[in-house]
Amino acid sequence: MFSQGVHGEVKQGPSYWGLINPEWSLCYKGRRQSPIDIDPGRLLYDPNLRALHIDKHRVGGNITNTGHSVILKIDNVPLAADEEDSGSDGVDKQNYDPSQSSPDFESDGMARNMQQHRSALAAGVNREEDPFRGALPVHKPVNITGGPLTYSYQVEEIHLHYGTRESIGSEHTINGRAFPAEGLLPNTDSYITYEGSITMPACFETVTWIVMNKPIYITRRQLIGLRQLMQGGAQAPKAPLGNNFRPPHPTHYRPVRTNINFKESKERQSGRHLDELLKNTMWKVFN
């Protein structure tokens, strides 16, 4: 994936992204690159961060195998009149990395087995003229608001690395029915956010990352299926998916914010411990 021949020698992987193509120079020179190692000791509590919200519409779509991931194309969702006039326009994608090594972020030096990615365009951006993504079809599906996001964003596609042995271009429906879009988020209001980049070429530094402080669980069998993803076409149907995960990059003094109030949590824990201590002491005195 993303390999390129240079002077007869094949150079591939994230280490060469910024060297083999001048248009990908940010991958090598950028100072706001992702992923990063999230150090809990350096998190900054921001009381102005709002809760993240995703509309509770039921959505359906088709699944397409692109060769290195599986894309869920969400069907159009009817909107209320005020939403149609809002000018909101965006894209949300969910990527799953089944690599056995590092995913696209680390927390205190430890990595998860998998990860989902969501990227979006701000409200009012015309995707047909977007310089970073080129021509894209315009849809108006589920809104995502809140958190560190200034504008409204909308779900259009979900990219999943999900195991399938069929060739590139095959399409499937999701059990032929809709599913709740809010189920794509873990059941928590706590998150961490920072400004970074997309984790594939051309590494544009245009992403506001929101890392939920709770994982979504899958079974071991599902994880094995993800790692056995086939990316080949008709000529090479069993060409394997490469583990070209991107290693963590320096933060370069970027603030990493959170809505988790550690001080308040410690005070609550201390208060609870004091209450229990008083109850135990009183019980000993009067009994």
From TrEMBL:
GO biological processes: one-carbon metabolic process
Domain of life: Eukaryota
Stretches the record annotates as Disordered: 81-109
GO molecular function term, any single one: carbonate dehydratase activity
InterPro entries registered for this protein in UniProt: CA_dom, CA_dom_sf, Carbonic_anhydrase_a-class
Stretches assigned to the Alpha-carbonic anhydrase domain: 1-260
Pfam families: Carb_anhydrase (PF00194)
Family: Belongs to the alpha-carbonic anhydrase family.
Name assigned to this protein: Alpha-carbonic anhydrase domain-containing protein
